[in-house]
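Hey Z.,

So I finally got round to the 5-O-phosphono-beta-D-ribofuranosylamine thing we talked about over coffee. Here's the setup:
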Amino acid sequence: MLKVVVLVSGGGTNLQAIIDAVEAKTITNTEIIGVISNNKNAYALERAKQYGIFGKCISPKEYDTREAFNDAFLEEVNGLNPDLIVLAGFLVVIPEQMIKQYENKIINIHPSLIPAFCGKGYYGLKVHEKALERGVKVVGATVHFVDEGTDTGPIILQKAVSVQQGDTPEILQRRVMEEAEWKILPEAIHLIANGKIKVENRQVQIEG
Ligand code: GRF
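And the result:
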């Protein structure tokens, strides 16, 4: 059983997609053992509660220094002893020490086709605003391993989504979630849980 901890900051629709896929058994060999949020009002925590999943808020605001938060945060995650950490709309920078300790064991969902519209400052609605500003016709989402850079880790899965006439950032964000994020994030977890993913030279190989 792959023990998964999901880190969230907001509504948690990606968390919901993972929960639904575990229930529907499209993700197998996986147990969600905890949900950690930096925001106590995140609806994602409510979702965890509804399914009897352990939930916890740990916020940088409650600590005097970033180091103190990072230490407490790492301790909290280590206490759960996860095999995989899933960033599902988590807006806090992951401490360097956590990245080292969990090499190729942290995955993130990003709402663009990396390397387009990613890196510092590209999060949430901003990504979709920039895509519409540039006038691209195809957008999408990416699941990748987390390394020390911003959105630079090995790419696991990507899915393209069409831009349509008249799209607003909000409409486009929703379509990218529905057609890409909620599909490829559970799929990546399923592949990892079933030993189908290998990382060599920063490249992901998926076994058939
Ligand atoms: C998603 O668009 C995800 O790609 C981004 O943050 C959003 C999270 O939404 N990183 P939700 O909390 O899963 O509903």
